[in-house]
Amino acid sequence: MLEQDSISGSICRTLCVAVRHKCVRALLASTKDCLHNLIDTLRPIEADNQIFARTQATLLLGYLLNDTSASDTLWWELKKNNSNLLFEMLLQFMESDDIELQSTAMFCLTQLAQSIRKENKHTFIDNVRSGNVGSSDCQPEYIVEELCKILMEIFKEHLEKKNFLTRQDDTWSSLCSCMASLLSVSPRSRMYAVHRQFPRVLNLALQAFRDKLSLQGKPVDVIRNANSEPILNNLYWVLTLANSSMLDCAPCKECFSEDVTSHNKLWPWYMMTEPLRDTIMHLLLTFTNDNPKGWSAMCACVSGHSLASEVCALVSREASRPRASHLLPLALRVLTHCTPNQHCRSLILKTDVISCACKLRARNNDSYTEAWYKLCEALSRHADGASALINVLSSPTLRPIPRPLLTSLAHAAHHQRLAFLQSPDLLEVLSGSLLTGDTSEIVSASRAVWALAANNHRAKLVLRSSGITTAVQTTMQRLQRSNDVAAQRALQLLTYTYNILQT
């Protein structure tokens, strides 16, 4: 048996080298007998002489999971046999004091989680029961909770040692990558992490980075070599982990909302490298999505700055560049999430964010304007935002007024009727959209006319004199000849609007 394990381990070790080539990986993944036999060997270690063979087999599986057919076969086998032996073995590896076993388990679990993300198999892994259910309230009932628990314990150990603050720590990046991959695909593990107050642990890690980097004071050599600065690379992994823990997890977002001061202090460092800039924007996008407490936290002022004001400044910088980066639409989407909060909205309107699209349009750059249209629509749902939008639309650089803004104009007409009626350009946009627009544009224009005319005799007179009533009547006649369902619904709305204009 000892000789057999040694031979098996040596074969797997040799294949681990060869399988890094795509063609070899595809060949092994398509050899079903080989893959089935490999999966059968992945079970908890019962004797020391099995360690080498299990370690190499686990590494080989991790490499093979990059191939879709291999991951499909693995998950099919696990579901068919309702087996949790592979997960118990990974848990056994991570509970070991052997660094090599821990790193092997983390590598394989990372690849497993990433294959789940591609194949959408999180339902299965979330419902694999643990074999070690105890009486304690915190004792995990499911295998993902056990994996999450041991990973959190390892993370806390690294946090106490603080090696990640002084040098490039490969173990730290492997650990964070593994946890981020698991949390991103397992809703159950995210809820368990909140139960064990892991968001607070992550905040402690961010505070440690903040304190360490504050002492450095952005020396010139750090700025020049930021992309290869170890501490910034380690910070990237914490942000990635924090983002994964908040995905579709409201309780986790609320935990992070309690303290965002570290992000305010770390913001200048976030802006130093492209990975950090990209990661912090994705984190804020997740954090602000349907999170009222997060919107308030975005306005929290530290040393004269808030996260909302920093994002606004980022939008202005990106829009002013000859060629804006992908950060611009991300930043605009973050601000769009925050518009229901009055304080956030006030910060946005005090800056030139809402007028930045004028700069992009003047340079014929339409690749980022869709995100701006959505921000305008979100702002126009409120009186102050609608007023600001109408002021921006008076700019010559927005001539002709873009049709995608019609939905925003419909909201603005409801809040800023007088300003709307005093603008011949806006009324011309409504008339033109009714006569030549597609169905969705006709609906938006009709909604705007209805909002202007409802219960206001003077507005009806202005709309009639501007030709809106004639445009409505002409459009109704055109839609009556269409059998399209959407067109018929638009016709109903137009008919209702026309009756209001005539009364």
Automatic annotation (TrEMBL):
SUPFAM superfamilies: ARM repeat (SSF48371). InterPro entries: ARM-like (IPR011989), ARM-type_fold (IPR016024), Rotatin (IPR030791). GO terms for biological process: centriole replication; centriole-centriole cohesion; ciliary basal body organization. One of its GO terms (cellular component) is ciliary basal body. Coiled coil: none annotated. This is Rotatin.
